[in-house]
Fold these 2 entries.
Entry 1:
Amino acid sequence: MLRTCAKRLRTLGSPLGQPGAQRRSFSSEKFIHKDYALPNPSWSKDLRLLFDQFMKKCEDGSWKRLPSYRQNFPEKIQEFQTLYLDSSLAKGEQHAQQFPRSLDVGLGFEYVMFCNDVERKVLCFLQVGPHLQGTPGFVHGGAIATMIDSTTGMCAFRAGGIVMTANLNINFRSPIPLCSVVVVDSQLDKVEGRKVFVSCNVRSVDKKTLHSEATGLFIKLDPDKSLKK
Ligand SMILES: CCCCC/C=C\C/C=C\C/C=C\C/C=C\CCCC(=O)SCCNC(=O)CCNC(=O)[C@H](O)C(C)(C)COP(=O)(O)OP(=O)(O)OC[C@H]1O[C@@H](n2cnc3c(N)ncnc32)[C@H](O)[C@@H]1OP(=O)(O)O
């Protein structure tokens, strides 16, 4: 698995695959607002197959592919700041990036999310790159938690708007091999006032292996209470 992964990374033909290509274009708008939830040469056959399968499901409108950017659009940040922050953004934060998208292409998290708002589900197809190692050969628990947080967070966001994670409870059942593809499957359980409850499991593509199970509690932010910086 690791050898296949290394080979794929070595043979990346696109400009994104060339070392330094991302750094060079860091400040360009095109780079910042590129949609990363689309296939790139680092994607394995498994990830491509899942992507193609769900793009077909999008044709009747039941499922939607969620685009994904490294940085929030400035107007979104402005809106968030106006509603929830009591101090202005510090200079450095204008270059802030979404953590799961901040690693070089193919080395960290390669993923695409699809949502079904009727079924209140968000699925994330995730390929875990070689820079996410914990125990040798396997994925770091913090990396798994990151994607569980992001997927359940998206599920809560679609139901409740702007939310923050208040509690995340994860059981790690079996280790995830580095460079493999897994499915993070999240489901909205209930909404009680400002509390949004989501559950989630992480399985292998053939569904035979349960890697992790989790529950999350998300709280809808209250515009009357600013987040302190
Ligand atoms: C920047 C631009 C943004 C633009 C956004 C645009 C689009 C967004 C797009 C997509 C989003 C999609 C995906 C999300 C992606 C990633 C997800 C990552 C999310 C995170 O990674 S986020 C970081 C970690 N997260 C924190 O850093 C939170 C720290 N925390 C706090 O900031 C506060 O804690 C807060 C705000 C959570 C609540 O504070 P608060 O003052 O508003 O509310 P309060 O405390 O009154 O709680 C209300 C009721 O919830 C109960 N409650 C609260 N906490 C509980 C707990 N832990 N367990 C059990 N019950 C709890 C209370 O008991 C009460 O219950 P009751 O009403 O029944 O008494």
Note: The longest helix spans residues 141-160.
Entry 2:
Amino acid sequence: MTPTSETHISTQVPQLEFFWKTAISEGLPVALWRLPKSTEKQLLIDLSGRTSQTKIDLEELPSGFAMSPFIGESLFLKGDLYYHFDQDNQLVENNIHPSSEQAQEFFRKVQLTYDEQHEDTPISSANFTVNYTKNFESPTESSLYNEITYAEMVSDAIDAIQRGDMQKVVLSRTKQITLPENFEVVEAFNKLCVAYPNAFVSLVYLPQEKALWLGATPETLISMDKEGIFRTMSLAGTQSAIGPNGEKYHPAEIRWASKEIEEQAFVSRYIIECFKKIRLREYYEVGPKTVQAGNLMHLRTDYSVNTHEVNFPQLGTVMIELLHPTSAVCGMPKEPALRYIAENELHSREYYSGFLGPVNIHDESHLFVNLRTMKIQGNQATLFAGGGITEDSNPVKEWYETEMKSQTLLRVIL
Ligand SMILES: C=C(O[C@@H]1C=C(C(=O)O)C=C[C@H]1O)C(=O)O
């Protein structure tokens, strides 16, 4: 299918960035993503101009994109317009309502954007950023955390664990940076797609919040494919994938200490507890094995269920409710860990460690934990990173772990 045959607008095929820029300049909510191990880039636009809050019910919702905070109601971007692009950013498919009037009108606007740029009257990127930069007040604090204050926070958490308040808590921090003048967000997205073929790479624009969220996460919360296979994973434990002299390690070379093995086992146990709550016994479990996520290595166990075999088509929806937030981003047991996070972190997590991803697109839903992520407002970016704290954590090492996690994005996009 080509856009030309569907829309009869032009023989030229505009590229991804023109669709993106047109939607942004119209002030519309947009989600752009690339699934792990795929080359397709998918773009979805909600023409209502607003995102609505809703429960992520895979049985009920139309095609769209879910964006859920760590705590609170999920947002849902309706897939009024949907396009997919190849790895060279060329339009391949325009297939939810390709012939609707709105789709045709939007395509004409994209064409205009494209033509203007190609008539030597380039529309500068500043024009496109105006919608999400205006009315934005720059954050005043330069940095909420440093090595010393974060290490103290971790020490306090270790004390709380030793007192028996909980077994594990995931603490996180922010890192504030000013983006370079020539920073282009779609280019950054494209770079992340190339650098991290196994990650879920996403870029979401929320006009109500005048914010963009850009990320490359290694962690699936739940996925339901068109064959009815449900998947989730237990991901935890972190080490650098790069040696002291810049050499790249192979996953098979990595050795894990008992601290990381235990930390990841908490997450696996948590997932199995969720299965038990719904009396689901027929699940497949593979792992734990070492997996690479860009500059890092993690321990991962994969779980899958054939929902046809167990006659449980709503498993995806039920598991979103049960799993989120998992022990990989919150802690064990969940309630005291949640309380500890609320009382001790100095920032609001917002969408970091929430979940996001496409819902009911081509009969599939893929939701990921929002990690290795940053919020962009104007020329300010806030990176979010955390790590699981157990009795055996080393406070200074935990700080470096959050630095390495921030580098997953920074080393590629800057
Ligand atoms: C919390 C994050 O990552 C999670 C925590 C990990 C850990 O504690 O080792 C590893 C992978 C993720 O499940 C993050 O990236 O911010």
Note: The first strand starts at residue 30 and ends at 34.
